[in-house]
Amino acid sequence: MKVVRLDTLCMLCSFTLLCTSNEGKGDCQIDYVPAPRTTEADKMNDRKLLQRALNRRLYLLLYGNSNTAPSGKPVWHFPEKVYDSAETLHKCAESALASVLGDLFHTYFIGNAPIEHMAIQQMENVPEPFKSQVVDTNKFNIRKCEEFVWVTKDEHLEYFPEQAEFSKRMIIS
């Protein structure tokens, strides 16, 4: 039995466009005004919001029951699903994310193959991580977990210190 783990990331646009019209000239001038990179969520360290760490990729972590937790207790983990051999790994990854986010309209899966294979001793459910990108939204109705956070690569290590070496290879900053 395999477990498909989904490493979800989000990168948000950090600029706004203002368009002003010149009276009588019929043309339009566009001024680029950079948005502040530090948001209220950054100041409050609110990891439940996507509107934070705008210059970094964010990864979705869930707290709750996991197929890969050896103790059966709630743990922090990426969205996951037990692989059914009747479907492709890619479809399994989409299904895993859909079970948490619901609508996948604002997501993009990067490639059809897992990004990494973890060799874990004495484990039946070996995770097969896929990467997916969230585009064009800032709020999801996340469900099927006790808690969730959107974290940067560095913050991710606070939740998985034992996987630091693996995370450095797998996760893009």
Automatic annotation (TrEMBL):
Q: Give yes or no: UniProt keyword Disulfide bond.
A: no
Gene3D superfamilies (alphabetical): Nucleoside Triphosphate Pyrophosphohydrolase (3.90.79.10)
Q: Does the keyword Signal apply?
A: yes
Q: Which residues cross the membrane?
A: none
What InterPro entries does UniProt report for this protein, alphabetically? Ribosomal_mL46
Gene Ontology molecular function: structural constituent of ribosome
Organism per entry:
Gossypium klotzschianum
Query: Could you say which residues form the signal peptide?
Result: 1-21
- According to UniProt, the name of this protein is 39S ribosomal protein L46, mitochondrial
Source organism's superkingdom?
A: Eukaryota
